[in-house]
Design goal:
By secondary structure, the chain is α/β, with parallel strands linked by helices. It contains eight helices and nine strands. A seven-stranded mixed beta sheet has the order 3-2-1-4-7-5-8, with helices on both faces. A two-stranded parallel ribbon has the order 6-9.
């Protein structure tokens, strides 16, 4: 059993999932992989079950009945991982916007370095985004500026979804109190770690927009992030975080 588990939430990722799984399985460090699939009608979970025959001790699948949001998928995966002995728990997308080779960088930041939370950051060394339209880059970049202003977190990429948690850091978060399911979930998790004065490190990565499948971005997700940040700050001020 590896000391590391990568959690990937999926919904209709049949075009990406096999290649992603094989890439992770062939990395020089051994990573186990948990896919949390939200009832994908395109056969994503069927493909994963086929691949489990090749990687029976390293590839795991949790199936949920319907699409229920990114945040709830990750919380489901976190609970699953914490019931086992993993020391490092990762978040990563299925669509190759996060380069699986960068898992090693995040692992080293926590395992060799002192990070309790390592963030694969698009903005810590400038703007390292490929194939996004300018409007999407500006939205994402200034969202993180907004988060810094409201929360006081010194994080350049607050909405990043490429993450490594030390087990102890994840255990310090009361998962039953997580409120948000979209980008606001990513902000909330970072803010809860920040509020506990744990060590957060941004690791520079190059983010490349998906070339296969469809983005899950929506106006509701953006709205949740804008108002969710204010809600987080108020709850911390009232000691209700």
């Amino acid at each position: 059993m590896s000391d590391s588990i990568v959690i990937i939430p999926t919904y209709n990722e049949i075009e990406n999932i096999e290649s992603m799984i094989r890439t992770v399985m062939n990395l020089p460090h051994s990573f186990d992989l948990l896919v949390v699939d939200d009832g994908s009608p395109d056969g994503t979970s069927v493909k994963i079950k086929q691949l489990q025959l090749e990687f029976p001790e390293r590839l795991f699948l949790e199936e949920r009945a319907k699409k229920s949001g990114l945040g709830t998928a990750y919380v489901h995966g976190f609970r699953w991982a914490l019931l086992r002995s993993y020391a490092y728990i990762f978040e990563m997308d299925a669509d190759f916007s996060h380069n699986p080779n960068d898992l090693i960088k995040l692992y080293d930041a926590c395992h060799i370095g002192t990070a309790d939370l390592a963030i694969g950051s698009r903005y810590v060394t400038g703007v390292n985004v490929v194939n996004w339209p300018l409007s999407r880059v500006l939205l994402s970049y200034f969202a993180s500026v907004y988060v810094r202003l409201i929360t006081g977190m010194h994080i350049h990429d607050a909405t990043a979804g490429f993450i490594c948690y030390r087990r102890s850091a994840l255990e310090s978060v009361n998962l039953s109190k997580i409120k948000f399911i979209g980008y606001a979930f990513q902000i909330e998790m970072k803010y809860r770690i920040f509020a506990k004065n744990l060590t957060i490190q941004e690791v520079p990565i190059i983010f490349t927009d998906r070339t296969k499948g469809q983005s899950k971005m929506s106006n509701a997700i953006i709205k949740e992030a804008i108002f969710g940040v204010i809600s987080l700050r108020i709850r911390k001020f009232l000691n209700r975080l």
